[in-house]
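REVIEWER CHECKLIST
Item 1: Sequence provided? yes
Item 2: Single chain? yes
Item 3: Sequence as submitted:
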Amino acid sequence: LLGSGFGAYQDAITRFDTSPGRYTLEQAHNEYLEVLANGGLAAAIMFGAFGALAGHRMIRNMRSEDTFRRACCFGAIVGIFGVLIHSSVDFGLHVLTNALVIVVLLVIGTANTDKEQC
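Item 4: Structure as written out by the authors:
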């Protein structure tokens, strides 16, 4: 339920690996399975909760009356969606530059710029 620990997939999978041993498994098949295998159900729930909260905030920003804010949020959503699709087949977020780009996109998409709430 708690996974093997982040970074310990290669050590934990050896007792379940039934391949002849020509290649060793170092990572799961994609980013999502890697989070689930390393962090278990707890990490998957936190990952999902973060995604739901960020998605809710971006949807709220898309309903803004400010057209520039909507345009920035839409661009951030498109970029994040592209990264999410890519993460289903590869490990792009293990590259520091890609991880920083998605953090910047999340900040742009979820930014609260209402002067009333500042």
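Item 5: Key structural point noted by reviewer: The CA atoms of residues 64 and 114 lie 10 Å apart.
Item 6: Recommendation: ____
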